[in-house]
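Worked example 3 (structure in, sequence out).
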């Protein structure tokens, strides 16, 4: 066995986050009398993406992102709504939206049956991620989940990976592989931590300059041949 410990990103690697987010957004709109149209959701999505990119760069906190996205969203729509209440209801709905990506559950079950230990590494909101994992088929497959809020640091910071590795018995760069879809958090983070990494790239985006990528897959099932 090449890698005993597999560090798996959650959103867009195991879970279909765009689908979950769209469903949760619709629920929030229903509760707060907000137009629920593709254009309105695209506006929210763009604001949200810009703020999470700032978070990934270390410019803002997660708490700032989750509230500020609604402040800017309602400002752009010229609507008066309670941003904190809308964010709370969106996150509550998001925690109930569990949509595994194709083959994700089968791949994880096969890996566990082979003796691998699976760990979630995520920057997502802690309450949301815990609810989604508990309500998913992955609950009995994941050895542990390491959420950045608990770690006091986030991907791609070296401090986050130090936190993770310190809590996995015997983990090292020789027996641990990081897997995820994000170049800026998952791959850059693995590089910062000196860990081998696998880029999940279903959209077949071009390889970037300046990052080391040990493996690249477009289908999660290909992971079974790597580890």
């Amino acid at each position: 066995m090449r890698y005993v410990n597999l560090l798996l990103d959650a959103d867009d690697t195991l879970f279909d986050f765009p689908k979950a987010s769209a469903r949760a957004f619709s629920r929030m709109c229903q509760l707060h009398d907000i137009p629920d149209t593709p254009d309105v959701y695209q506006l929210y999505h763009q604001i949200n993406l810009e703020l999470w990119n700032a978070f990934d760069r270390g410019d803002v906190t997660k708490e700032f992102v989750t509230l500020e996205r609604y402040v800017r969203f309602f400002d752009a729509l010229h609507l008066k709504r309670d941003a904190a209440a809308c964010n709370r209801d969106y996150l509550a709905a998001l925690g109930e939206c569990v949509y595994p990506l194709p083959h994700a559950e089968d791949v994880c079950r096969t890996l566990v049956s082979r003796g691998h230990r699976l760990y979630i590494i995520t920057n997502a909101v802690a309450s949301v991620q815990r609810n989604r994992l508990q309500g998913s088929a992955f609950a009995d497959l994941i050895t542990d989940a390491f959420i950045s809020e608990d770690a006091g640091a986030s991907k791609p910071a070296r401090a986050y990976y130090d936190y993770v590795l310190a809590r996995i018995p015997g983990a090292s760069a020789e027996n641990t592989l990081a897997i995820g879809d994000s170049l800026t958090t998952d791959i850059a983070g693995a590089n910062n931590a000196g860990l081998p990494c696998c880029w999940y790239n279903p959209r077949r985006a071009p390889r970037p300059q300046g990052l080391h990528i040990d493996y690249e897959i477009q289908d999660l099932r290909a992971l079974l041949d790597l580890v």
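Notes: The chain has a mean pLDDT of 95. Residues 32 and 86 are 7 Å apart (CA to CA).
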